[in-house]
Fold:
Amino acid sequence: MIYVLKIGGANGIDYQAVLENVARRVHEGEQWVIVHGASALTNQLAEEAGLPIRWIHSPNGHISRHTDAQMIGIYIQAATMLNNQLCQILTTLGCQPIGMTNVVCGRRKDAIRAIRNGRTVIIRDDYSGRIESVDADAIHSALERGQVPVIAPLAIGTEGEYLNVDGDSVAAQIAEHLSADTLIILSNVQGLLRDLSDPSSLISQLRVHQIPQVEHLAQGRMKKKLMAAQQANTRRVILSSATIPSPIDAAFNGDGTHILREVAHDAY
Structure:
């Protein structure tokens, strides 16, 4: 049975604690594929280089990084650095990680609609992309060798260029291509809340077909996570926190928001 884990790239993520939990489960015989983000490190490197950090607000409310010709270089550097760091941690924990930055192919978005100052504008200098394919064979081969694939949020474009792709979408498509049982998306929030100011308003469980009914509750990056839950085609997707002890165990034990593809009462 294969499990896919997406580790967010925002501030507040305890990578050591998350990977210790992964390593223990790998040593128990489970197969895990890790996808990671790189947002906080990208921001840090951009600030150090004196580059402005800009965001694209789409008409439907989604937010993404404006990755122009300068920023894509920073983004690649951050994604590669974090990929290496996660692999190093897993190695010290007795695992056999393999960093992967070339298993996703995409197509660059030629024109992106965005809202700026209340007006719709077209952005043409962005190096973000739509995911078109995943090299599932390469990931399967790594798993069969006993390795832990660690996949960066990068795609190879049609001209061989690196593209910024959404890590949640990468994880969802990998989960679907591998026929994974579960996709866990860990971030610095506990899950989907009815009221952002009230932690007790967590929505603990819903079905995939109910996502359109709660999309209005999602703020910022949570919108992308709900989209990923719809794309994954796994038995379940769990949106949970990476800031708690043993976060994977906690997610399996009921923490976070569990999104079920079908009724599975015996799974809980």
Q: What stands out?
A: The two ends are 18 Å apart (CA to CA).
